[in-house]
Design a protein that fits this description.
Blueprint: E1 2-11, E2 21-22, E3 25-26, H1 41-53, H2 59-62, H3 75-88, E4 91-101, H4 111-122, E5 125-131, H5 137-140, E6 144-155
Parallel strand pairs: 4-5
Antiparallel strand pairs: 1-6, 2-3, 4-6
Helix pairs in contact: 1-3, 3-4
Bound molecules: zinc ion.
């Protein structure tokens, strides 16, 4: 077995028409995050944790953010590709746990849907927790969203 960790952070976008997508779920009540793809910070952290666990580099290496193919991409699709990379390297996800840090909106009403979508894509249990930065720093000022993830994989 091996473990991997992933971290990602995105600022909120200035574009009011951009949806906020976290863990593959559209979350109302806040602008979307800025980024090349759909900027799903949770899916990106999960993907990096899995790649790290399997010793397969990082998300940016597999899906460069200057590649137009991934502009506004659905990050759950990217996550599915990452699971394929992990499997091709001979590893199977056991579980992934995430901590999302944001001031608002509240994630509790969306947590189960996020876990369901992520778990279906990864093929293993993905759990999501949310916490606030208690007013500290850029996250505490509500300027963006960060996510940490830890993944466990076993020989497939
Ligand atoms: Zn990202």
């Amino acid at each position: 077995m091996r473990v991997g960790m992933g971290f990602d952070i995105h600022p909120f976008s200035d574009d009011p028409g951009r949806p906020l997508v976290l863990g593959g779920v559209q979350v109302p009540g806040a602008p979307g995050l800025a980024g090349h793809s759909d900027a799903d910070v949770v899916a990106h952290a999960v993907a990096d944790a899995l790649l790290g666990a399997a010793g397969q580099g990082d998300l940016g290496g597999h899906f460069p953010d200057d590649d137009p193919a991934w502009a506004r991409a659905d990050s759950l699709v990217l996550l599915g590709r990452v699971v394929d990379v992990v499997a091709a390297a001979g590893w199977r996800p056991v579980n992934v746990d995430c901590s999302v840090v944001l001031e608002a909106p509240r994630l509790a009403p969306h947590r189960e849907a996020m876990q369901d979508r992520l778990s279906a894509q990864v093929g293993a249990d993905v759990t999501v927790k949310a916490t606030r930065a208690e007013g500290l720093g850029a996250l505490g000022r509500g300027e963006g969203v960060a996510c940490w993830a830890v993944a466990l994989v076993e020989r497939g």
